[in-house]
Amino acid sequence: MKKIIVSVLGHDRPGIIAAVSDVLFRTGCNIEDVSQTILQTEFAGIFIASLPDSLQIQNLHASLCEKLGPMGLSVLLREMGETGLWDAPPSDPFVITTLGPDRLGLVARITELLAGYGVNISNLKAVFRGGENPQANVMIYEIDIPATVDQHAFRESLYERGAQLGLDISLQHRDIFEAVHRI
């Protein structure tokens, strides 16, 4: 059975997930993973679904465009390759939070440091509303730090980069972060 990645972008409104999932259901596709978010006023959704052998990707794309086009949504389909799963090294889950004034390069400079240490970002939420109010400019990175990384050196580098960028940075193990922020 083939797997497909369905990406949907457009102005947010109620019913987008219902419309996509309805088309997938009616064409015999099984949704395996979904991630969606709203960025300012824009919807961004990614679906991974398995397709029945009888369904052509072009036909699925046409059905999605017919349903979603009138809603002003763009659809991109891509077949998943047979690459398998990424063979991630043993790692520990952490959460980085940053607060600080908005300026160019914040995401680029933090992610550059993470990549240099071989740290994988599993989730990122960055909200910049501009200005000097640090509470209006927040980044939350869920990351996996390889077990081979010198935690002390990584922490020092991260805090040094935060100081260079004028950011207050916190690094917590994900279990601690979740326990502190549990509703």
The unreliable regions are none
Overall number of strands: 8
Shape: globular
Question: Biggest sheet: strands, sense, closure?
Answer: 4 strands, antiparallel
Helix content: 25-40%
Q: Pairing-aware structural class of the strands and helices?
A: alpha+beta
Query: H/E element string?
Result: EHEEHEEHEEHEH
> How many DSSP helices?
5
Overall description:
The longest helix is centred in the last third of the chain and has 15 residues. Helix content is 31%, strand content 38%. A hairpin with an 8-residue loop joins strand 6 and strand 7. The chain is of the alpha+beta class. The chain is built from five helices and eight strands.
Q: What's a concise summary of this model?
A:
This protein has 5 helices and 8 strands. The chain is an alpha+beta fold and 183 residues long. A hairpin with an 8-residue loop joins strand 6 (120-128) and strand 7 (137-146).
List the helices and strands and how they pair.
Layout: E1 2-11, H1 16-26, E2 30-39, E3 42-51, H2 57-68, E4 74-79, E5 91-99, H3 106-116, E6 120-128, E7 137-146, H4 151-165, E8 168-173, H5 174-180
Antiparallel strand pairs: 1-3, 1-4, 2-3, 5-7, 5-8, 6-7
